[in-house]
Amino acid sequence: MTTQAMDLARGARLGATKRRRPAFLPYLLVLPILAYEGVFLLYPIYEGLRSSLYRQPLGRPERWVGLANYRRMLGDDGFWATMGTTLAYMAAVIVVVLGFGLGSALVLNRQFRGRAFARGLMTLPWAFPDVPTVLVFLWMLNPNFGVMNVFARTLPWVDSSPTWLLDPTLAKLSVVLITAWKGFPFYSLVILAALQTVPQELAEAARVDGASKVQVFFAVTLPAIAPTLLLLTVLASIFSFKQFTLIWLLTGGGPSGATNTIVIEIYNTAFRFYDFSYAAALGVAGFLMALTIALVFVAIQRRQELEAG
Amino acid sequence: MATTVRSGVAPHTPSRRVRAGRLARSVGASVLVLVVCLITFFPVYWMAVTAIQSSRLSTVYPPSLWPRDLDLTAFREVFRDEPIERWIANSALLAGMATILCVGLAILGAYALSAMRWRGRAVFAVFLLATQMLPEALIIVPIFKIYNEFPLLGISLRESLPGLSLIDAAFILPIGVWVLKNMFDTVPREVREAALVDGAGPIRVLWQIVLPLTKPGLVAVGVVAFFYAWNEFLFAQTMIQDNAIKPASVGLASMISMLDTPIDRLLAAGLIFAIPPVVFYVVMQRYIVAGITAGAVKG
């Protein structure tokens, strides 16, 4: 079809199909999704909110208690410790994942032989399922035979095998780094894609004018990928906030609460102590946190969409 | 060579010192590439090394960094001692159901978002973005209560793979719609509109024009959905206690807590479970990364 014919067709469409196209069709198309998510996401959120206002001793009917669960939560030092652990874990994961993601993206963005292979390798941790990831790291961190002991003992101040996941500080560090190992390829690949959109002429012109590579990075590259980095920061915060499986299987929240984030706390409260109504209240607190991050994400994305035109 | 990009900038013959500097930088860059690749690859390598060696080598300290012998008994024994085939079959069934549900619904929503302008479209898009961010663990308690007795129908969805696939699909659906919408956006508007003018209805346009043009995107969404359900642990662990219908993620995790399982068997089982997603992600990498990054980079 020629361009002209296409234009004609378009003109005809504006006149004819506007009336012909059924206006209800898009609603019909999204209705199944809305109904589905309504049943499986929105209704549970409502049900969680409702049951957080009740008290339900195991095997007995529930009883309205108003805000008692929330009063208990806000007055509980354990809750605030959990919140602190959650935020610290999130912050650490964000820093490591973005730092390493950016670093590896810059390294892989250069021309070198085997670049396609190196990039392909990056999908490996990303595609690797959570449970086998836990398996191999539990093995690597085994206090007796783990290979990490070999590496750790090459450090001058380490003269015996560390206890890894049994030591609060090392457990925190390990959980963050394992989360980051599995997570960073995603950030790296997204940043790589963003680096590809950085105008090369600008960087080259700056180089000709005598700017050093570091100067070019801060003056040209970084501003160009800043919107992507901002978006990724929010994504990293929500992904780390969501993280359950890795922490649960690595430490279960221990040792002595060192890795007890809010999602772990909810799970333990519900399925170890069978305190469903208090777990529901914790879920509402977590939900408010997730919603805040989600709204920031949506706001940033819409602003960037507007700026992009 | 690493310096070819810049050769156009400096037309004069580089001095020996400059050349030495470039060589040093290119060596430095290669070392960095190597470090990144090592960090990425080592845990998987280590898993494979332990699994393919004979058992006794895994209780030697310090361990050798490369395999000392080849002994695949662990793979044979784990099939003999654990119902691996059944776990894998359960996972495949679960993931298959979740994929069909997710792709089917995502096609409709993505088409409405990509090809149509309607009131409430922006709200729907925001709704999808927001639900995509919802942590599974926050609704595990109400979902568990609901699944014990589905309120409208009075049936239990617990201890059932179709029931589990329903909730998995609910969590992957927003991402599926989003990725597919980006794929559908690549079909030129003129192509769709020409077909509409020729008298095809919007659904026929979707079926006969948009979908055939975006097959890779469909496959990518299918792969992402399939392996989300394949990997999913939290819901599966909470809802399924019955050994006969355990998916592999739960089965594997239950092996961790059995202290007497030899490590090479555990890692062999883990490898078997990890190979399908790794193969599919590597093969489909281009489309998956394109689909997912399109959303993140383009906004």
What is the molecular shape of chain A? globular
Count of distinct structural domains of chain A: 1
Query: What is the CA–CA distance across the termini of chain B?
Result: 35 Å
What percentage of amino acids of chain B are in beta strands? under 5%
How many H/I helical runs of chain A? 13
Class inferred from helices and paired strands of chain A: mainly alpha
Count of individual beta strands of chain B: 0
The level of helicity of chain A is: over 70%
Going by CATH, the homologous superfamily of the largest domain in chain B would be MetI-like
* Unreliable residue stretches of chain A: 1-19
CATH architecture of the largest domain in chain B: Orthogonal Bundle
CATH topology of the largest domain in chain B: MetI-like fold
Integer count of domains of chain B: 2
CATH superfamily of chain A: MetI-like
The outline of chain B comes out as flat
Strand proportion of chain A: under 5%
Describe the largest sheet of chain A.
2 strands, antiparallel
Q: Averaging pLDDT over every residue of chain B, what do you get?
A: 84
Transmembrane segments (chain A): 23-46, 87-108, 120-141, 173-195, 216-241, 276-300
Keywords (chain A): Cell membrane, Membrane, Transmembrane, Transmembrane helix, Transport
GO cellular component, one term (chain A): plasma membrane
InterPro entries (chain A): MetI-like (IPR000515), MetI-like_sf (IPR035906), UgpAE/MalFG_permease (IPR050809)
